Every structure is written in C-alpha cells, then in structure tokens.
Amino acid sequence: MSLILIPETDYELTGIRAQGAGGQNVNKVSSAIHLRFDIKASSLSDWLKERLLNLKDSRINDEGVLVLKAQQFRTQEANKKDAIKRLHDIVNAANHVKPMRYATRPSYGSKQRRLEIKTQRGKIKQMRGKIAAE
Predict the structure, then answer these.
(1) pTM
(2) Which of 3, 43, 48, 127 is most buried as measured by Cβ atoms within 10 A of its Cβ?
(3) Residues 3, 126: Cα–Cα separation, whole Å
C-alpha cells in the first residue's frame, strides 16, 4: 500500500484569525488556516471517496467537504504545513484496509498445558485450608 499525495489543486487554504490568547497581535494577523477539501470533486479514486464520505467525522459536512482548522502554531506557514499533513493523514488512514481475521483452534498441546496449569493451581489452593487441630 502506497501513501497517497493530494495535489494542491484539490484543496483550498484560507488564512483566518486564530482564537485564544496572543495580545494585540492576535487581532491583526491571520495566522490560523482553514483547509477545505471537496471529497466529491477531488482526484481520488471513487473507492477512496466513498470510504472518506462514510467516515463518522464531524469535520466532513453534508456537502462532502472536509474542513480542517489549523491554529496550533504561531506562524501561518507552520499552520499550513500542519493542515496539509493532517489532511494526508486522514486520507491515508481511510486508504488502509485491515486484513481479514479468520478463526483458529487451539492446538492439542496448548489445551493439555492449560489443563495441567489449572490442576496445579487447584492443588495449591486446596493446601490453603485450615489445619485441623487434634
């Protein structure tokens, strides 16, 4: 399985003002980033688009647009890199298919060892009884 790289034409980056503390500068600088990724209009395969749209993720709205807000860092450039990395992480996680599990049986030897340990524990517990006074 290879990692999927999303072209820059598939998503839209917008600078917004970050929330939280920051003094006077917070009202002037648009350091946070809104990343909008339209899943239906993207260049991904139909199979992967379907997997992304079926995710139970509150960041995907009813129109099939994934909206990420990056405001962890103080600079806009660092927030852009963070938003793009998070987008790639989400898409690559949806691309990962877990291998099928199949039922197996315990071997004869493992059954015998388990029963032997059980009898040993039972004998140990049996010895814990009170000693009868004569």
Answers:
(1) 0.66
(2) 48
(3) 59
